[in-house]
Amino acid sequence: MTPQPTSPSLYQYVHLVDGYVYIGKIAILKSEFDIMVKSSDTPQRLVLKLLDRCFSKHTLSTSNFNGSSTFNQKTNKVVTKLPLDSQIIQTILKQVEMIYPIFVNITKLRIAINDKCRHTECCCEECKCS
After folding, report:
1. Quick one: DSSP state of residue 69?
2. 70: left (phi over 0), alpha (psi -120 to 50) or beta
3. Which residues, other chains included, contact 3 with Cβ-Cβ below 8 Å and sequence gap of 6+?
4. Among 41, 58, 64, 105, whose CB has the most other CB atoms within 10 angstroms?
5. What is the pTM of this model?
6. Is the distance from CB of 46 to CB of 112 less than 8 angstroms?
7. Environment class of residue 53 by beta-carbon count within 10 Å: exposed (0-12), middle (13-18) or buried (19+)?
8. What separation in angstroms does the CA of 88 have from each of 14, 29, 78, 91, 98?
9. DSSP assignment, residue 15?
10. What's the CA angle centered on 109, arms 107 and 111, to 5 degrees?
11. Is 22 helix (H, G, I), strand (E, B) or coil?
12. Mean pLDDT lowest for which of 32-36, 44-48, 71-75, 76-80?
């Protein structure tokens, strides 16, 4: 069974003020947020879209869910990652849970977040974050 988000008219928002949905300190136009939800057919896809909207490529490439060490297959080295902003991550998870109330599996969402971070390449030429 394919998960379906709640009806757009029934969306609940963790923090909605003056037409903006707030994910931590990040303000997203409600209409833009609703488009993200409508174009996401799974909770994981919505999480990935919100990650792209809330974090820079640099932050994603140098971080992961908990800030744990990972093995980089390209360089054959262990890399210590920083934790993603916990307020933003917790708000994303709560928002996804509100939209997909019976389909949220936090373990799968954490794996999706870590995969996104692992496969994001930084676009900073001056830094050596990759």
Report:
1. E
2. beta
3. 41, 42, 43, 100, 102, 103
4. 64
5. 0.82
6. no
7. middle
8. 11, 16, 26, 5, 15
9. S
10. 70
11. strand
12. 71-75
